[in-house]
Structures are given as C-alpha cells and as structure tokens.
C-alpha cells in the first residue's frame, strides 16, 4: 500500500489521493489534477473512475488524483498539462480561454436560464464547438463536461441587490479576460487571483468578495471569511477533463476507450451529485452563517448590454461561435 501523506490543511503539497496500489506495477502511471477539495463531488466521482480504470485495465493504467491545487495554481497546471508534466487536468473552460480563447463562450454573462439549457448546449453543439477549439490547440478533451455550477456572489460587507452594488466593489475573479470584462462592465474592481489563493485573499481583505457556485462555497468554507451570499446566477461554469495529447496517444486504443468511458460516466454522476447538493445547499450555508438574498437578473443583463459587453464579446468570439451560443440559449444576446 502507498504511504498515506494526506495533508490536513488545504494546499498541502503533493499529497497523493489515498488508494490501494495495483498488485503489479502499472504500465502507465498518470496524474490528474484539479482545484477542488477532496469532499467535492468531482473528486468523489473521480476516485471511483480511476479505480474502475485500474481494475478494468488489469492494473495497466494507474491514475493518481491531486486535488486542491496540490500540483500548483490552475494557470500553472495548464502549463504542466501542455508540457506533459501532468497527464490529465480538470479545468474551467473560462480559465482555459487563457490558452484557447473561444473556450470561454459558455461563460457569457446571464446567457443560460437553467440547467436543462446548459446540458443540452454542452452535450450538443456548443460543447462540440468548444471541444473542437480545444483539440485544435493540441489538447485532448473528454466528451462530457463536469459541473461547477451557476456562479453566485459573496461579500464581507454588503449584499449585491442591484448592479450599482457592484460599483467600486473589490471582487476576486478567476484568471480570464471574460471575468475581468464582466465585472469591469459593472464598474467593479476585479482582481484576477487563482483559486489556490482565494481564501487567504478574502481573509486578509485584499478583496471584499468573490463569486462561485454554492458547492464550492461549501467545500471551501467561504462563510468563515464572507457574510453575504447574493444569488446573482451571472454565469454557468463547468470543468472540462483535459488530457495531454502525447500521454493520451501513448495509451493503446482499448485503454483509451476504458479511460474515456469512466471519465465520462464520472461526469454524468457528478452532475447528479451537484444537482442533489444544490437542493440543500442554501439552507445548509444559511445555517453556517451566510445571509442570502435573491437577485433579479434583468437589470444586470441590461447594464451589461448598455456597457457594450455583449457587442464586444460577439466581436471577440466571432459570428460563427456567437450564432452557436444564441441557438443554444434560444435567444439573441
Ligand atoms: O476558481 C474558481 O473560482 C473555480 C473553483 O470556480 C473555478 O475553477 C473556476
């Protein structure tokens, strides 16, 4: 059995996910990294998937999970994925846009009204479009995207009720031009900070707020450093499961099939887990101390339009991509 080195503190360095070792040395020892704590459904389903892959390949493909940014901040791990230092990586398409510009198109502000529309789009033409862009950039991507969720806004000082509440608001955003642009359009002061540093940034007051889906608020214990949780639902975000192309091509076809099948099954199960969690997360987070408020998205979308946000991003993504987005959400933006 592997030595257990699980660090108690978030950010513990290179602590491997605990899992019994294959009876025989594996032919392919691969790593998969992500930014989420072990308790997040992503890592629970990933643990199942890598175990099934190990079993079904007769011990040939042994993939170790490195959660919680143990291999580095997201933008660093993206570099490791490209060089082959890490073989697999789960990453938000919006952060991935630092390498694949049009991958972030699902993150356009207020584009998606609900999850049904999200899954039809991401399992349909919009997802296929993003995967095509990702493959053109030299990376491998699994077919099914994992859920991060609809993003909500937290603050240490005040609830966000109207767009004016964002004015001058110091908010952490993940590293991506789309996020910076969105909050700049609201007159906020966005700071690009990798997830690995968010808790500390909030604790030390470098920023007043941040935005994330409820499941992340829970596993990252955001109530310890934030007070108000405003249901802004300003974008939907997921995690593509990416692969290094050389590492992928080194796998025989029958192993590729097993790996892809279990990763995609993991995504489908993780979506259900997050959905079930969503039903209880609000009351759960309220009992942890968060003060919730609901938000009417209409004035926020109007403000973005007035600021030229949609026109600017239509130009950036191009007419073809924009048409796929509008078809996916069933309206013009
Ligand atoms: O960095 C974030 O806020 C997170 C966890 O939601 C993403 O991966 C985009």
Characterization of this structure:
This protein has 333 residues and is α/β, with parallel strands linked by helices. The protein is built from 13 helices and twelve strands. Strands 1, 2, 3, 4, 5 and 11 form a six-stranded mixed β-sheet that branches. α1 packs antiparallel against α10. 47% of the residues are buried. Bound molecules: (2S)-2-hydroxy-2-methyl-3-oxobutanoic acid (X2X). (2S)-2-hydroxy-2-methyl-3-oxobutanoic acid binds next to loops. (2S)-2-hydroxy-2-methyl-3-oxobutanoic acid (X2X) binds next to loops.
Short description:
The protein is an alpha/beta fold.
Distance between the termini: 54 Å
Tally the helices: 13
Determine the fraction of residues in helical runs and give it as a percent range: 40-55%
SSE sequence, one letter per element: EHEHEHHHEEEEHEHEHEEHHEHHH
Poorly predicted tracts of residues: 1-13
The largest sheet, given as strand count, sense and whether it forms a barrel, is: 6 strands, mixed
The radius of gyration is 20 Å
Could you give the count of β-strands?
Answer: 12
Subcellular location: Periplasm
Keywords: Periplasm, Signal, Transport
Organism: Paracoccus caeni
GO biological process, one term: transmembrane transport
């Amino acid at each position: 059995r592997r030595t257990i080195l699980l660090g108690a503190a978030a950010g513990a360095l290179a602590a491997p996910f605990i899992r019994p070792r294959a009876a025989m040395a594996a032919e392919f020892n691969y790593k998969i990294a992500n930014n989420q704590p072990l308790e997040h459904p992503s890592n629970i389903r990933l643990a199942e998937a890598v175990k099934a892959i190990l079993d079904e390949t007769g011990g040939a493909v042994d993939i170790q999970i490195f959660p919680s940014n143990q291999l580095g901040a997201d933008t660093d791990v993206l570099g490791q994925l490209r060089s082959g230092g890490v073989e697999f990586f789960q990453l938000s398409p919006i952060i991935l846009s630092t390498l694949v510009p049009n991958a972030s198109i699902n993150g356009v502000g207020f584009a998606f009204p609900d999850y049904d529309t999200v899954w039809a789009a991401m399992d349909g033409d919009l997802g296929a479009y993003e995967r095509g862009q990702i493959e053109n950039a030299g990376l491998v991507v699994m077919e099914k995207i994992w859920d991060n969720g609809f993003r909500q806004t937290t603050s240490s000082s005040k609830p966000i009720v109207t767009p004016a509440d964002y004015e001058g608001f110091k908010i952490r955003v993940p590293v991506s031009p789309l996020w910076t642009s969105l909050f700049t359009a609201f007159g906020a002061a966005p700071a690009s900070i990798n997830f690995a540093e968010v808790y500390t940034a909030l604790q030390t007051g470098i920023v007043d707020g941040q935005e994330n889906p409820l499941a992340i608020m829970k596993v990252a214990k955001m109530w310890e450093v934030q007070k108000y949780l405003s249901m802004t639902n300003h974008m939907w975000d997921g995690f593509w499961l990416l692969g290094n192309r050389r590492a992928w091509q080194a796998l025989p076809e029958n192993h590729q099939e097993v790996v892809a099948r279990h990763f995609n099954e993991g995504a489908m199960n993780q979506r259900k887990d997050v959905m079930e969690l969503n039903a209880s997360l609000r009351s759960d987070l309220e009992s942890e101390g968060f003060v919730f408020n609901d938000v009417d998205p209409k004035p926020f979308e109007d403000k973005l339009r007035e600021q030229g946000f949609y026109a600017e991003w239509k130009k950036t993504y191009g007419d073809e991509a924009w048409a796929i987005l509008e078809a996916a959400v069933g309206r013009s933006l």
